[in-house]
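Hey, I'm writing a tutorial for new members on how sequence and structure tokens pair up, and I'd like a real worked example in the thread rather than a made-up one. If someone can provide the structure for the chain below, I'll link this post from the tutorial.
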Amino acid sequence: MKLSFVLILFILISLRGVCQFPPAAGMIGSTAIYADSNIFVSWANNCYIQRGYQNIAQPELGLVSYGNDYDAIGKANNQVVSLGDAGIAILTFSPSICDKEGFDFAVFENSFNDTFLELAFVEISSDSLHWFRFPAISLTPANNQIGTFGSVDATQIHNLAGKYRVLYGTPFDISDIEDNIYLNKQNIKYVKIIDVIGTIDSTYASFDSQGHIINDPYPTAFNTGGFDLDAVGVIHPNENAIDNNSLALAFIAPNPCDDVINIIQAPQNLEVIIYDEYGIEVLKKSNATQIQLSTLSSGVYFLRIENQEINQLFKIIKR
């Protein structure tokens, strides 16, 4: 019995070691999609960026700074914005993305070859409040750190953005995410890209859906460090969605937040009111898209955005 258990364990470990996913762009079996492909119907129309550190283990080096949020809007063109360690991008779509047969959208990074792969998690949301992550898998061994300009094998990577070189998108299938009452798979309005911190130091490491450390080039301690977002292309738009920018819903980021919270896609003539958990008004601003919260204590608050056309309420957490 003991021998059988050891044999089964050995087989499972071996299978994990040889399991392969689609290879690099241009190779037989690759799922990479070129930016000029007519499979893309539309592209992200807005982007919010929360920069990460050049090196999360050395925060004194500061944040990355390359590119701007608008570089991630529209068609992939190798004009990118760098996220840095654990940096975040939130992109919006009009019309929204829907789940159909096969891949539904693709994320573009700017790797200069097929092995220098800076990776990122991908999450989706239909309301900007509830987020759902694609089940990422990294089979890259984590016993030795991949260096700053080291190599990652694309066949060991699944459901992570950055798998393919510049101008080749990594596609995602919404059906890979389990059904949930808070996710309308036929109306995905938001895609979030979160930089993978490539270190194998468990203090800062990123983990895949199976609990394994994701090993990718680290450190990348310069102003272009981390995942470099080029674009997100839509393959399956929601053709029944109403494209009316004047009524486009706003969303807030980051949440949880520290001293500042941003209102993205803010409507005109808006009032912003913040209440504490007891419903008492603690802050009010007019036509502000960046709200300073430094005067508020840590805790749970409610932020209301309203004008003549919309009235939205968000639960926010101030750290």
